[in-house]
Amino acid sequence: MQELEASERSVEHLCAISVDHLQIGMYVSDLDRPWIETPFLIEGLRLTEADELERLRQLCQRVYVDPQRSTPEVQALLRERAMPLERPGAAVDPRYRVYRVHPIERPAEEELRRVSPAFTEAREMFRRMMHDEQTWHRNIPQVKDTVGRFAESVLANPSALSWLSRIKNENEYTAEHCLNVGVMAMIFGRHLGYDRKQIEELGLAGMLHDVGKMKLNRAILDKPGKLTAAEFAHIRTHALQGYQMLVDDPGIPLAVKNTSRDHHERLDGTGYPYGKRSEEIGLIARIIAIVDTYDAITSDRPYSKARPPSEALRILYKARGDHYDDALVIRFIECIGIYPPGSIVELSNGMVGMVLSVNPDNRLHPRVLVTLDENKQSITETVIDLASDNNQGDEALEIQAVLPPGSYNLSMEKMLLHIV
């Protein structure tokens, strides 16, 4: 009962209205088009100026207002006019829309302390499982328990697991990749407004999408150089092998089984194993395809060094519509944001720190764990909330630059020690 009540509190219905009825004080939570296609830099906008109203009227036909985040005057107006709280009709692609807002329940520091032990345990479990072809299935109940625990954490504050999933070991890429794809899929599901059950299904699909790789020749899987045609053909067999490993388990949802087979299919038919096209590929498989690619690009692999999140997002954006679902790529870029947790940043006053957490409603102003002063000298770690009312005025701090990983010898592992 307690879990149900918490879930119900996390759901806020939005009011779909015509842009002709927009008024100052309304909180616009979503549009009838992706935010990234508009001049507004972040999702969520409380209308305070007439030019904002005019821009929205030029860009959209209707918007989705959150009554609870609007001013009291707007709330009274909505009640007086009895404007219905509704979802739009089926003609609007649901992958563009957000209908649930899961509020941040705990600060990232607290959630990191709560979930770090479970993440460490899960990482060890995946390492054992992916090296145990004979009895791997005995770990499925623990995988499901992990998904449930992580879903709770993602709903409370997605920044914590986002941070942990970026701490990677090159020598354990395959095992950690399965865990990280599951985590990122759940975070993406939260962003899409999915409920807990849907988020858990995404997490399970992500964590099991590459189980077929335990059937592969380890020397080929871990080869540091370019694969031959025969070796690449061998690697491609993991999709069907994974499906065969899961297909007879009645406790695994059909969509999860299909995703293990279809996560390398591409919309234009150039994927494998069957060369499926567009609607032949299920929604969860489309989501995992995007998350799988993102984590692979941002990880150290035997044959490739990790690239920054911005480059991974650029690659996905370029391939949208052909390889990846156009709408989902846009939403995933929104989900990752400009300053993902773990990014090393320099503030406008010269101080340097690491992004600790990001509020989904204010992605340009994250909370930063500052460790270097204006002269780049070490100081006692201090959390600065760039969105705080205390950080306003003419000299409000902003992020001036995103620095390369490892700058000033800063690392997520070291920073985590100061938090947990």
UniProtKB/TrEMBL annotation:
Residues 152-348 form the HD-GYP domain. InterPro entries: DUF3391, HD/PDEase_dom, HD_GYP_dom. Gene3D superfamilies: Hypothetical protein af1432. SMART domains: HDc (SM00471). Pfam families: DUF3391 (PF11871), HD_5 (PF13487). PANTHER family: CYCLIC DI-GMP PHOSPHODIESTERASE PA4108, CYCLIC DI-GMP PHOSPHODIESTERASE PA4108-RELATED. This is HD-GYP domain-containing protein. The lineage of its organism: Bacteria, Pseudomonadati, Pseudomonadota, Gammaproteobacteria, Oceanospirillales.
